[in-house]
Amino acid sequence: MSKEEKTDPLEGKLIRDLAAILEETGLSEIEIEKAGLRVRVARTLHMVAAAPMAHAPAAAHTAKPAGAAKPTDVSSHPGLVASPMVGTAYVAPSPGANPFVKIGDMVTEGQTLVIIEAMKTMNQIPAPRAGRVTQIIVSDGQPVEFGEPLMIIE
Is the domain of 11 the same as that of 72? Predict the structure, then answer.
Protein backbone atom coordinates (compact mmCIF):
# COMPACT_ATOMS: atom_id res chain seq x y z
CA MET A 1 0.00 0.00 0.00
CA SER A 2 1.48 3.37 -0.95
CA LYS A 3 1.69 6.31 1.40
CA GLU A 4 -1.12 8.08 -0.53
CA GLU A 5 -3.54 5.14 0.00
CA LYS A 6 -3.09 4.99 3.78
CA THR A 7 -5.88 6.52 5.86
CA ASP A 8 -4.89 9.62 7.79
CA PRO A 9 -5.62 9.16 11.53
CA LEU A 10 -7.33 12.55 11.49
CA GLU A 11 -9.73 11.29 8.80
CA GLY A 12 -10.68 8.36 11.06
CA LYS A 13 -11.34 10.78 13.92
CA LEU A 14 -13.42 12.95 11.61
CA ILE A 15 -15.53 9.95 10.60
CA ARG A 16 -16.03 8.95 14.25
CA ASP A 17 -16.97 12.55 15.14
CA LEU A 18 -19.48 12.74 12.28
CA ALA A 19 -20.98 9.38 13.32
CA ALA A 20 -21.35 10.74 16.87
CA ILE A 21 -23.15 13.80 15.50
CA LEU A 22 -25.56 11.49 13.61
CA GLU A 23 -26.28 9.60 16.82
CA GLU A 24 -26.77 12.76 18.89
CA THR A 25 -29.05 14.52 16.40
CA GLY A 26 -30.99 11.57 14.98
CA LEU A 27 -30.02 12.51 11.43
CA SER A 28 -29.73 9.77 8.82
CA GLU A 29 -26.71 11.21 6.99
CA ILE A 30 -24.16 14.01 7.10
CA GLU A 31 -21.60 15.19 4.55
CA ILE A 32 -18.66 17.55 4.89
CA GLU A 33 -16.07 18.84 2.43
CA LYS A 34 -12.88 20.52 3.61
CA ALA A 35 -9.54 21.11 1.91
CA GLY A 36 -10.36 18.76 -0.97
CA LEU A 37 -11.47 15.95 1.36
CA ARG A 38 -15.13 14.97 1.08
CA VAL A 39 -16.62 12.67 3.75
CA ARG A 40 -20.20 11.39 3.87
CA VAL A 41 -21.45 9.28 6.78
CA ALA A 42 -24.90 7.67 6.57
CA ARG A 43 -26.84 5.19 8.66
CA THR A 44 -30.04 3.22 8.40
CA LEU A 45 -32.68 4.24 10.92
CA HIS A 46 -34.63 1.57 12.76
CA MET A 47 -37.88 2.72 14.35
CA VAL A 48 -38.14 2.17 18.10
CA ALA A 49 -40.47 3.62 20.68
CA ALA A 50 -38.87 6.66 22.27
CA ALA A 51 -38.90 7.83 25.86
CA PRO A 52 -42.10 9.57 27.00
CA MET A 53 -42.38 13.26 26.10
CA ALA A 54 -42.95 15.91 28.74
CA HIS A 55 -45.62 17.62 26.61
CA ALA A 56 -48.29 16.53 24.16
CA PRO A 57 -48.59 18.03 20.66
CA ALA A 58 -51.15 20.79 20.22
CA ALA A 59 -53.26 19.07 17.55
CA ALA A 60 -54.34 15.46 17.77
CA HIS A 61 -56.72 13.49 15.57
CA THR A 62 -58.15 10.43 17.27
CA ALA A 63 -60.61 7.72 16.44
CA LYS A 64 -62.56 6.54 19.47
CA PRO A 65 -65.24 3.89 19.53
CA ALA A 66 -68.58 4.96 20.99
CA GLY A 67 -68.44 5.08 24.77
CA ALA A 68 -64.64 5.18 24.88
CA ALA A 69 -62.90 6.44 27.98
CA LYS A 70 -61.13 9.79 28.14
CA PRO A 71 -57.92 9.95 26.08
CA THR A 72 -54.76 8.97 27.93
CA ASP A 73 -51.16 10.09 27.54
CA VAL A 74 -50.08 8.55 24.21
CA SER A 75 -46.35 8.74 25.01
CA SER A 76 -46.59 5.49 26.98
CA HIS A 77 -48.91 3.67 24.55
CA PRO A 78 -47.41 0.35 23.35
CA GLY A 79 -48.45 1.10 19.75
CA LEU A 80 -46.78 4.52 19.66
CA VAL A 81 -44.88 5.47 16.52
CA ALA A 82 -42.51 8.25 17.56
CA SER A 83 -40.43 10.53 15.38
CA PRO A 84 -36.88 9.22 14.99
CA MET A 85 -35.61 12.73 14.15
CA VAL A 86 -36.21 16.46 14.18
CA GLY A 87 -37.83 17.83 11.03
CA THR A 88 -41.10 18.61 9.28
CA ALA A 89 -43.69 15.84 9.02
CA TYR A 90 -45.72 15.27 5.86
CA VAL A 91 -48.65 12.86 5.86
CA ALA A 92 -48.85 12.61 2.04
CA PRO A 93 -46.24 12.07 -0.67
CA SER A 94 -46.98 15.49 -2.22
CA PRO A 95 -49.30 18.46 -1.62
CA GLY A 96 -52.89 17.57 -2.50
CA ALA A 97 -52.16 13.82 -2.71
CA ASN A 98 -53.97 11.22 -0.62
CA PRO A 99 -52.33 10.63 2.77
CA PHE A 100 -50.09 7.59 3.27
CA VAL A 101 -52.54 6.28 5.91
CA LYS A 102 -55.87 7.24 7.45
CA ILE A 103 -57.43 6.39 10.80
CA GLY A 104 -58.77 2.85 10.59
CA ASP A 105 -56.34 1.72 7.86
CA MET A 106 -54.58 -1.62 8.28
CA VAL A 107 -50.83 -1.26 7.72
CA THR A 108 -48.06 -3.78 7.19
CA GLU A 109 -44.65 -3.68 8.83
CA GLY A 110 -42.37 -1.43 6.79
CA GLN A 111 -45.19 0.46 5.07
CA THR A 112 -44.54 4.23 4.85
CA LEU A 113 -46.60 6.14 7.41
CA VAL A 114 -45.24 9.68 7.05
CA ILE A 115 -42.25 11.50 5.59
CA ILE A 116 -40.05 13.68 7.76
CA GLU A 117 -38.00 16.28 5.96
CA ALA A 118 -34.72 17.02 7.69
CA MET A 119 -32.03 19.17 6.09
CA LYS A 120 -33.70 18.97 2.66
CA THR A 121 -33.75 15.14 2.84
CA MET A 122 -37.07 13.31 2.74
CA ASN A 123 -36.99 10.40 5.23
CA GLN A 124 -39.74 7.80 4.93
CA ILE A 125 -40.91 6.63 8.35
CA PRO A 126 -41.99 2.97 8.17
CA ALA A 127 -44.54 1.16 10.30
CA PRO A 128 -42.62 -0.72 13.01
CA ARG A 129 -45.33 -3.44 13.07
CA ALA A 130 -48.49 -4.47 11.31
CA GLY A 131 -51.80 -3.29 12.74
CA ARG A 132 -54.62 -0.75 12.53
CA VAL A 133 -53.99 3.00 12.67
CA THR A 134 -56.10 4.25 15.59
CA GLN A 135 -54.68 7.76 16.02
CA ILE A 136 -52.86 10.21 13.79
CA ILE A 137 -51.32 12.79 16.08
CA VAL A 138 -49.17 14.75 13.66
CA SER A 139 -50.63 17.09 11.05
CA ASP A 140 -49.29 17.81 7.57
CA GLY A 141 -46.38 20.26 7.57
CA GLN A 142 -46.03 20.15 11.36
CA PRO A 143 -42.54 20.53 12.83
CA VAL A 144 -41.65 17.51 14.99
CA GLU A 145 -38.99 16.82 17.59
CA PHE A 146 -37.09 13.60 18.22
CA GLY A 147 -39.37 11.18 20.11
CA GLU A 148 -42.54 13.19 19.45
CA PRO A 149 -45.63 10.99 18.95
CA LEU A 150 -46.68 10.67 15.28
CA MET A 151 -49.42 8.04 15.42
CA ILE A 152 -50.69 4.93 17.19
CA ILE A 153 -50.87 1.48 15.58
CA GLU A 154 -52.77 -1.23 17.47
Answer: no
- Give the residue among 123, 117, 124, 122 at the shortest CA–CA distance from 144: 117
Domain count across the chain: 2
Could you tell me if 135 and 103 are in contact, meaning their C-beta atoms sit under 8 angstroms apart? yes
Q: What are phi and psi of 4, to 5 degrees?
A: -70, -30
Amino acid letter at 35?
Answer: A
Q: Answer whether residue 56 is part of any domain.
A: no
Residue 5 has φ and ψ, to the nearest 5°, of -85, -15
pTM for the predicted model, two decimal places: 0.53
- Integer Cα distance of 77 and 79 in angstroms: 5
Q: What is the pLDDT of residues 45-58, one digit of tens each?
A: 544 444 444 334 44
Range of the domain at 65: 61-153
